[in-house]
Design brief:
heterodimer; A: about 260 residues; alpha/beta; Rossmann fold; 6-stranded mixed β-sheet; 4-stranded antiparallel β-sheet; B: about 750 residues; mainly alpha; 3 domains; 5-stranded mixed β-sheet; disordered C terminus
């Protein structure tokens, strides 16, 4: 039995984010999210658009500073040592763009160097990524000429080039065709054996149902519930994730109305 | 540093593979100058050659001139270039400046078949005035070339002279019909110039011959013919004068007095001085054009493409990334500059460029003096940092392009103003960004740049750069880059649509006043003032308020957009009470400024003109155009429409900055830059505090009225002893602004 606290790769405690908007005043995008994600575990954040998934992931990956609460990645506080956190992090943003006029290999080399890889280590890492994601046929062409699926493969290869223990993916399958998104799901699945902690957001229920060890349901800036599919079933008394989701959202709306 | 270099390498690689960037930075300058100079040079030569070779057609009536003059003139005229002369009787053309005569001349110059047939003024062929020498003789054919038209007998008679006038051969009908015959039927080819000579006086010695030239300025050939006739007359006149002097005095004592001036400035000095007039400008403009694209690509473009977010989660400090991007922009800007200068130097070296007009001496450009460009290096870095700041603030490429616009204005206009001949580099100027280095470059090209000042310029510009770079890290602040979450509405806030609307329109107003209003005022002062104040400014104000961005579903409130709301009476009174202090302050400010920045001689003359205008105009006229109209309409545009658009998004400090800047720029004078800037800032503060444009209008009217009417001595009370104490009224005036503004429905939380 491993020590549970040391195995926790991502921890968020009361994470909240508030924006100021001159027209609407204060906007609370995230109102307090708690979550734990262990090594070798796949955690899915499930929620509708505008629920606060992206903001949560951005706070965890040091891009945005939390208004309150704290977040630890591999035991390191994101606010205290963001550079160290970023070293342990592979991040794939929702709108992952690639430099259109760089080739896949140049892209990998650039980001590898930013991660401190150099010389033989860098070339070896690139060679591994080329094999793992089968980039050989298009990895030396400019990214602007690649198909969406090929681009996504280059992006993923870029995110895991430095072999990070924690992987945060923001809607990784959105906009992909069937083959590409199936490749992506296979890839996420494969990280489980590697002992990587994967946290990803999605609004596709079937994806979460199939892939995730645990699921967090986010709605209106709050984590309504978190746990394995069985735990969620027990909590709501519903069988399918879609029903569970509906039930939780209705409860939240009713609770708000009562308050 | 390693990170910055990695970023630099990748960004340069990206740019080098970008055809647009490559074209604008390398290919365009490499080709532009040679093409430009070769093109204009070639066109000019071709133009001159073809015009000189053109055969022009002149109608002449020299019957009333004395024979000797007429003959000499024609000889001279023929020497000017190929010409066809046709005799005509133009006795009806007596008054040169008369519409009837003009009509007649037009008829003669543009004959139709009918007028040619029935030309009442022309004489029958062969009846030329005695002594009229019409050049003839085509050398190659060796026979007279004069030939009558195929048209009926009394058509104007024509002769052709190419090169030499060998004497008179008029009226002969022996010449072959030739190709001119084709013109006889239908529309006739117009004549280019009509030359009518008349003489008065008795003896040949005292006789004066007057030449009237009639021509149609729209036609190239007519202008050419006119020019030839003029220069023939000038040569003739000079020859005659010399002859007469020689005859009467046996020599001209005045001839020895004509000056022979020699410029003692060295070739390099002369060439450097001319280069100094325009090179400092070109350097800035070229840098902006080269650096802007790179800055847009590495900041706004990357943000748009979504790569910036990925870059920000890499384990490197954001400052290093920003530095790498700044270096990229710097390299791109300098490459463009180097290509431009290189191309220019090659053009100069190969003789493609007209050296005299563009800054070379007889022996070429002052290449050595170009070393002074070193002083511009920190400025280049500063300009690139500014470009990065601007483009870093833009969310999209397109938005960045719009923002580059005012930056160019901010950099170029002060530089243009400072590069006046009477301004020289002082320690004060040296620390002014862009202006200081432009002056230093000019003085360096002229060869009298003092090293301590050059060092001061470079160090101060490095200091400015450091300040800009310190802010550059913030540009990459993710909260700004991403606008927090995927939240659309919060992103809309980042767009700052209202503020940008104000900034953009402010630029339009300034340029509109420069280009349109001032041109109209130059043509006609009264009309110009009417047009500016009562047509252009109100139209602009309404356009700005009408097109101001609104939230979805928000109604369009034109009056509120123009700031037309009832203010507190205390604020209106307070604004008026400040006026005397403001006027006194402006006087002191101008007095102080005249020591730092002396008025050039030309400006003093302008002042005299203005004084004359004030002296001669009625107080009513002065008040109406210089106080009432600007008070109402300048305020309506600046503190009304622009301020209310900016108010949506900008903090009050930013609003005051832009208001001061645009208000100073719109007055288009370096000598009024400071007073109008301060006035603009004050008026903006008052409008913000009172939430209405009306107190600002009152203050503006009062201030202008007091200054203009006071200067013209129309206000008796300004001389009274008590008026000395009037500025103290500002204290209760300011105190009145402590009263909180009138709150109306739909108001946002309080502003200053």
């Amino acid at each position: 039995m491993t020590d549970l606290t040391s195995a926790i790769a991502i921890r968020a405690e009361g994470l909240a984010k508030t924006f100021h908007d001159p027209q609407r005043g204060v906007v609370e995008a995230v109102k307090g999210v708690d979550l734990d994600c262990r090594k070798g575990e796949i955690f899915g954040l499930l929620g509708p658009n505008g629920a606060g998934k992206t903001t949560t992931l951005r706070m965890l990956s040091t891009i945005l500073a939390p208004t309150s609460g704290r977040a630890l990645i591999d035991g390191i506080d994101v606010a205290e040592d963001p550079l160290e956190v970023r070293r342990r992090l592979g991040f794939l943003s929702g709108s992952t763009g690639l430099y259109p006029r760089l080739t896949g290999r140049e892209t990998l080399r650039y980001f590898g160097r930013l991660h401190g890889l150099e010389g033989d280590r860098l070339e070896a890492a690139i060679a591994r990524a080329f094999d793992a994601f089968d980039l050989h046929s298009f990895g030396d062409g400019r990214c602007e000429a690649l198909s969406t699926g090929q681009k996504q493969r280059v992006s993923i290869a870029r995110a895991v080039l430095h072999d990070p223990p924690v992987l945060i993916l923001d809607e990784p399958t959105t906009g992909l065709d069937i083959m590409a998104s199936s490749d992506m799901i296979q890839f996420i699945d494969s990280r489980r054996e590697a002992g990587t902690c994967v946290l990803f957001s999605t609004h596709i229920l079937s994806e979460a149902e199939r892939l995730c060890d645990r699921i967090g349901i986010v709605y209106d800036g709050r984590m309504l519930a978190g746990g394995s599919l069985d735990e969620l079933r027990a909590m709501t008394g519903k069988e399918w994730l879609e029903e569970i989701f509906r039930e939780l959202v209705q409860r939240a709306d009713a609770g708000e109305g009562a308050a | 540093m390693k990170t910055s270099l990695d970023v630099l390498r990748v960004e340069l690689l990206q740019l080098a593979r970008d055809r647009r960037a490559l074209f604008s930075a390398i290919v365009l300058p490499a080709l532009l100058y040679p093409l430009l100079f070769w093109g204009t040079g070639a066109l000019q030569t071709v133009g001159e050659e073809t015009m000189a070779e053109r055969t022009v057609r002149a109608l002449v009536d020299l019957s009333r001139a004395d024979a000797e003059t007429a003959e000499a003139f024609l000889e001279g005229l023929v020497e000017q270039g190929p010409i066809t002369l046709t005799e005509v009787d133009a006795a009806g053309l007596l008054v040169p400046d008369d519409e009837d005569s003009r009509e007649t001349a037009r008829g003669l110059l543009r004959p139709t078949a009918q007028t040619a047939a029935g030309a009442s003024l022309s004489k029958p062929a062969g009846e030329s005035t005695a002594g009229l020498a019409i050049g003839s003789g085509d050398g190659s054919e060796g026979e007279p070339d004069d030939r009558p038209e195929d048209a009926p007998g009394d058509a104007p008679e024509e002769s052709s002279a190419e090169g030499s006038a060998e004497g008179s051969a008029e009226g002969s009908a022996e010449g072959p019909p030739g190709d001119d015959a084709a013109r006889g039927d239908g529309a006739l080819e117009p004549f280019d110039v009509l030359i009518v000579a008349s003489a008065d006086g008795g003896t040949p010695d005292l006789s004066r011959t007057t030449f009237d030239l009639w021509y149609d300025v729209k036609r190239d050939d007519a202008r050419e013919a006119m020019g030839r006739a003029r220069s023939a007359l000038r040569d003739l006149g000079e020859a005659r004068s010399a002859e007469r002097r020689e005859h009467l005095l046996g020599g001209d004592p005045g001839a020895g007095l004509s000056p022979l001036s020699t410029d003692v400035a060295s070739e390099a000095d002369a060439s450097g001085a001319r280069l100094g007039m325009w090179l400092p400008f070109v350097v800035l403009l070229v840098l902006i054009s080269g650096g802007a694209y790179a800055a847009l690509a590495v900041f706004a473009g990357e943000r748009e493409a979504g790569t910036l977010e990925t870059l920000l989660v890499q384990p490197v400090p954001h400052r290093s990334i920003a530095m790498g991007k700044l270096l990229t922009v710097f390299v791109a800007g300098c490459a463009t500059l180097a290509m431009n200068l290189g191309s220019l130097v090659v053009c100069a070296g190969s003789g493609l460029m007209d050296m005299g007009s563009i800054g070379g001496g007889a022996s070429g450009m002052a290449y050595g003096r170009l070393a002074a460009l070193v002083v511009e290096l920190p400025t280049c870095l500063l300009l690139c940092a500014v470009l990065c700041l601007v483009c870093g603030g833009a969310r999209t490429f397109r938005e960045g392009q719009l923002l580059i616009f005012p930056v160019t204005l901010l950099v170029v206009i002060p530089t243009a103003i400072v590069l006046r001949p009477e301004v020289s580099l002082t320690a004060l100027w040296a620390i002014v960004p862009f202006s200081g280095s432009a002056l230093a470059l000019r003085e360096g090209l002229e060869g009298d740049l003092k090293l301590p000042l050059a060092a001061l310029v470079m160090i101060s510009h490095l200091g400015w750069t450091w300040l800009a770079v310190a802010r550059l890290g913030q540009v990459l602040d993710a909260e700004r880059v991403l606008g927090g979450g995927g939240d659309r509405k919060s992103e809309a806030h980042l767009l700052q649509a209202g503020g940008r609307h104000g900034v953009r329109w402010g630029f339009v107003v300034v340029m509109g006043v420069y280009l349109i209003a001032m041109s109209v005022q130059r043509v006609d002062m009264d009309l110009g003032l009417w047009f500016t104040f009562w047509m252009m400014l109100p139209a602009l104000a309404v356009a700005i308020a009408w097109t101001a961005p609104r939230a979805q579903g928000e109604p369009r409130r034109l009056a509120a957009g123009l700031g037309l709301r009832l203010p507190r009476a205390s604020h209106a009174l307070g604004a008026l009470l400040i006026v005397p202090a403001l006027a006194r302050g402006a006087e002191h400010l101008l007095l102080w400024q005249s020591k730092v920045l002396p008025l050039p001689p030309g400006a003093a003359e302008g002042g005299i003109e203005l004084e004359a205008l004030m002296g001669s105009s009625s107080p009513m006229w002065l008040f109406f155009f210089f106080a009432l109209s600007p008070g109402i309409f300048e305020e309506l545009v600046f503190r009304g429409a622009l301020l209310n658009a900016m108010k949506r998004d900008f903090t009050w400090k930013r609003i005051v900055f832009w208001q001061a800047l645009y208000f100073a720029l719109v007055h288009a004078s370096i000598y009024r830059l400071l007073p109008t800037g301060i006035l603009g800032a004050l008026l903006a503060l008052i409008a913000l505090r009172s939430r209405s444009v009306l107190p600002a209008m009152l203050m503006h009217m009062g201030y202008n009225g007091l200054l203009v009417l006071g200067a013209a001595e129309h206000l008796a009370f300004t001389g009274e002893p008590w008026f000395e104490y009037a500025p103290w009224a500002a204290i209760p005036g300011l105190a009145l602004f402590l009263v909180p503004p009138r709150v109306q429905a739909g108001d946002s939380p309080a502003r200053p």
